[in-house]
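tool_call predict_complex ligand=nicotinamide-adenine-dinucleotide
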Amino acid sequence: MRWFVTGGAGFIGSNFVRLVLQERPDVEIVNYDALTYAGNLENLADVSDHPRYRFVRGRIQDEASVREAMAGGVDAVVNFAAESHVDRSIVGAMPFIETNVVGTQVMLDVARQAGVSRFVHVSTDEVYGSLGPQGAFTESTPLAPNSPYSASKAASDLLVRAAWHTHGYPTVITRCSNNYGPYQFPEKLIPLMISNALDDKPLPVYGQGANVRDWIHVEDHCRGILAIVERGRAGEVYNLGGRSERANLDVVREILRQLGKSESLIRYVKDRPGHDLRYAIDCTKAESELGWTRTWDFTAGLAQTIRWYRDHADWWRRVRDGSYQKFYDLWYADR
Ligand code: NAD
Ligand code: TYD
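tool_result ok
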């Protein structure tokens, strides 16, 4: 079997590729990735020579390039490739439209025309918008995205849904909560706070740090996606979550506690515009239908993640340099 993974050089995609190579001896992987600032072949250096792994550089919105990379036959597409950072989408939305919206439609068209019989689209709980203090998103919660990032993901979800309804193309959508774990680009909350704390730099907390996210270890997310590639029903949406809601300030404090650093590193900065207050996810459907559940406890998962960032300072220092540093200076200078 051959699976075509887009965005496999990013955070979740690289964890997924490694998991599949380890646990599915009958699956070959084609990793198709543009290698944007967030994509890094170093994330898969340990499997680069694996006999069942092949990397192709390309953008998902380039139809001819996708078609060529799929030549030889593909059994399933797993579409991770995306622009993924909310703050960047506030600074400039167009790359999000080009990759997340146009790119997803190109992937759907090429995969359908090539006869690929499974298409799993990796989406996010952020498409549901923001919750008040109570309740949780279910698969039937109406889509109400609030950031250019989540709006572009919601648009892609609707195109995936339309491919199923219009063409009978067997697609499945996953919507997961906030991931953390090894290889996450240090622009996102947890790796940003860990790497800044390790360097004794200020930790920029938006507003009062009261916004709530549900945290899931990336390995649990990848196992959920694997179950959905293998057993998810066509035309369905599956929520995936960590059943670990935390206010941002509590996450930051826990990181400082585990690192033995002072809370005086915390800086309360200007809030993100349009900042969603709370995400919480009801993943009963995936649990009961697929027998999947998260296994990592948040405190233990965070400890493992902190150890990984301590041991891989050369990795995050390298990826933090260059174009990301320019974004960091621009975004945080104004906060
Ligand atoms: P990431 O930013 O770490 O990686 C994205 C990858 O996609 C990179 O390797 C990048 O090079 C590649 N890419 C970007 N544009 C491309 C293009 N036009 N063509 C081909 N490749 C391109 O993102 P991530 O955190 O690993 O997220 C992966 C997917 O999971 C995304 O679709 C995201 O919306 C979704 N998701 C993420 C989270 C999270 O907490 N990180 C939660 C739920 C869902
Ligand atoms: P992030 O990791 O960007 O994920 P998302 O916005 O997709 O949920 O942010 C997680 C939470 O952390 C979110 O409420 C915004 C907050 N945050 C900060 O307080 N400071 C920061 O520097 C960043 C990047 C995020």
